[in-house]
Design goal:
Layout: H1 2-8, H2 17-57, H3 61-75, E1 86-90, E2 93-107, E3 110-119
Helix pairs in contact: 2-3
Transmembrane segments: 14-33
Protein name: DUF4845 domain-containing protein
Pfam families: DUF4845
């Protein structure tokens, strides 16, 4: 009976030390990239909000761009300015479109690039 018990326990299961190190490195990398990506998405949400507000408030292209620039100063938007907006009219409604990209340096020559494109409806 004692011999069967030792034979069943001879193989242990679980992560090795190298496996734990590897999982730790992956977790740190994921948190580092996520921590750098969060401000990019917060800024994107602020840009969408500012573009929608500018489309509601302005009736001419210079008014819309000026309204966006005011909102950009308040919300600390640095990726685009009012000059980067494309303003059109569809069915008597002002539509503001924008597109831009943001790069996050990872390591050496590697970058993570986010490309955003949106228009108000």
């Amino acid at each position: 009976m004692g011999l069967q018990r030792t034979a069943a326990r001879s193989r242990q299961r679980g992560l090795s030390f190298i496996g734990v190190i590897f999982v730790g490195v992956l977790a740190v990398a994921a948190f580092a990239i996520g921590g750098q990506s969060v401000p990019v998405f917060i800024e994107y949400a602020a840009i969408k909000k500012a573009a929608a507000k500018a489309a509601r408030e302005g009736s001419t292209v210079p008014e819309i761009r000026a309204a966006f620039d005011r909102a950009a100063q308040i919300d600390d938007i640095r990726s685009i300015s009012g000059q980067d907006l494309e303003v059109t009219k569809r069915n008597d409604k002002v539509v503001v479109s924008f597109s831009y990209s943001r790069e996050i340096p990872l390591a050496g020559p590697a970058y993570l690039v986010y490309r955003f494109q949106e228009s108000t409806k």
